[in-house]
Each structure stands twice: as C-alpha cells, then as structure tokens.
Amino acid sequence: MTAPLELLRTAYGDLTGTLHDVAREGDQWAPTGCRGWTVHDLGFHLLGDTRRALVALNTPAPGPADRDAATYWAGWQPPQPGDDDALRRTRVVASTALGFPELVEAYAEAAAAVLVAAGRVPAGELVRTQGWVMEVDAVLSTLVVEAAVHHLDLVARLDRSGPSAGPLAEVRRILAELAGGPLPARWDDVTAARRGTGREALTSTDRAELGERADVFPLFG
Questions:
Q1: Most buried residue, 13, 17, 72, 130, by CB count within 10 Å?
Q2: Structural domain that includes position 64
C-alpha cells in the first residue's frame, strides 16, 4: 500500500493543477458536486482543510489515539441540523475573502507547506485534530480522502480530469472499512466514492448486493 504522505502529495498535486486550470479559464463560478457551492466556494473550503492540516501536524498530543483513518469519518454524516447555515456562511465568506486567482495561490502555498510539515513528523506520532487524537498517518489519510472526494466535486460540472488512481483507491479502502466489507466489485473507484458519500443514490441492484449493509449508506458526507 502506498504511504499516506505519497498519496497526499499526489492528491494535492492533482488539486492544485486543476484549480490553476480553472483560474486560467475563468470557471470559478461553475457549480460543483457540493450542493449550493460554486468552484470558488469549494476552493475556499479546501484552503481551510490545509489549515486544519497545518494545525494538526504542529499539535502533538498524549495518547491513546481515539480515532483512526476510518473512524474519523464517523463524525461527518450528511445532512445535519444547521448544515445549510454553514454552507451559506462559507459561500458568503468565500465570495468576499479572496479573488479566485489569489485563493488558488494561497491553496498551493498551504498545500506545499502541509507536505513539508508532514515529512518532518514521524508517522506514528500522535497529534490532535478537531478534538480527536490520531496518529499522523491516519490524519494524512483523512486529508487524502477529503482532497480526492472534493476533487470529484470540483470537476462534477467541468470537463477536467479528476483525482489520480492512488487517492481514489484510498477513498475506496476507507469506505469499505466503514461499510464493514468490500464494496461492489462492479463499482469503479469514482462510483464507489460518489455512492459511498451519498453523492449518487444506491440503485436497487446495489441494495440487493449490499444487503443489510446498504442501511449504513451514505458512509460519510
């Protein structure tokens, strides 16, 4: 299995390239796979995730760990009361905080800093993120998953490349852990990511194949 840091390097490289392309072409107001968000809004959210990463990687914590790469996602279930208000706040702040080219440069700089910081922290070291204690490699996995899923959201209405195979495979691995078993083999990794996170509804065939496990979908959102 590819090391989480290498997967994150790939995922962040993919996203940075796509965001730069969008900035050049002026597609920042295109809709995305996140309901109610444009590309600009999603870019602002992604910038926030790099800041979350920098805080985590510089916040050592005493053990034991209380979340791993999969159980971290148990806290993110769609939709929740107040979610629409949070989406609107992001939209308002994103539209006034930075122009899109500046936002893309800020994201590229922050993503590069995350990769440097991650390379300096031992994989098994415990850090704190969003109130939980996790091993660094588990935190890096969450960042890979976040980047890959939102990369799919970013290109949902754009004719552009999505995330690479490695980050998508990590998404599938985490979804399978949350589902308590393998996902349908006929799903490619993009389908797995979309259906596993509720961005596409399960079909009747999916439900028949998954059986009782279908009731736990979406696995996170």
A1: 72
A2: 4-170
